[in-house]
Amino acid sequence: GTLAMGKGGNASAAGPAALGKGLSPDRQYTQIRGQVYDITDFAKSHPGGTQLLALAVGRDATILFESHHVRPELVAKTLKSLPKVDTDVNLCPDESFPKPLDSPIYRRIQQRVRDEIMAPLEQKNGRAPSGRGGLVRDAAAVLIFSIAALVWYIKDPCLLSGCALGFAGYWSGTGLQHTANHGGLCESSFWNQFWGWFGSDVIIGKSSLEWRYHHMVSHHSYCNDHERDQDVYTSFPLIRLDESQPWAWHHQFQQIYTPLVWPFLYAASQVGDFTNVLVNKASPGVEYHGVTKSEVAQYVLGKVAHFGLTLFLPAYLHGFEKTIVPFLTFGAFGSFVLCWFFIVSHNLDGLRPSQLSKETKSDWGRWQIETSATWGNSFWSFLSGGLNYQIEHHMFPGAAHNLYPKMQPIVKEECAKEGIPYNGFDGYFGLLPITGAMFSFLGKMAVNPAKTK
Question: For the ranges 18-22, 94-98, 354-358, which has the lowest average pLDDT?
């Protein structure tokens, strides 16, 4: 028998209430396409590192597994070498959502990306065919800017240095943390884990542990699904992003107040990190089954380092009164830019699951393409860690972000062949029309559905 699914679909399946035969409480298991595997010993040798493998523990990891590896034949071989567990009780309910490798469009795009991008790069400059790494210049730019901004802010906390540090935080959150925690920044899993922690916990004060579970287990697997994608259901009831969510009187003003709440993300993250990591050991809808003691220690160390550098050291040097406004400016400005650049990626009219065709709803690749939007160009990709190439990122979440501009023409061509809508706002000023489209979508969701019937 299997457990009933909780909120968040299979992403939240809390593992069996009673362990079935063949399952031991001190071993770690995952389930891929209905088969339970023991991954306890594999953790040390997993090329993506222990932290990414930990996301698979105690849940159906089919989507995570199939979407984060660009070479299916290689991972199939590795999967064969893992100890299979013959159990009378499934670890959790089978994944009911469409699976990546069942998607013909995803398989075709994946094959073309390997043949046309990965293979030539491997021959030309020995870049890993896994799609990881090759981001030294990008990462160095983010690091140099962040350290310079931090030094300026510590020496002279003011509104300007607070804004500079806020922008550094935004850039570190996208150009370092985001790619590293997805496993794509470096070829080495140790350095991905280090920069993922440093770029997130230390520079922006956001728990990378919490982020990995909510962003990768929930958002990437089930993009825009209002019951399974945390980015949708945790914005509610403040912001209504889906027509299935109940309307309240305040939503009629959400076009006005949404950008006004963006600066508060930093403060909300502090509260969220604490409750999710230390109290609930879960993000809303996603339990942390695989969490390790070292990850929790990194969380604590990260908070100490972050507040030591951004609040206590400047306050010690210049006094609390001189520091508090620049400190609040840092959190507010970084949050504002991050929210703005992120909210446009999935919140436009036409990207809601209820607007998708029946065919798209049963095809993982089409689902990811049709619920995402891409804007800007490679310059913006450099400034946003590839976050602007959201369609390409959802197809290849574990890849180095400087490959996304190269992938875009392939994705566009394959979409055109199949008649799949590609939501693109290209060019240096693409951010402007996509922002306009996002506000008109917020306006559509602001209308009381009772009045429109």
Answer: 18-22
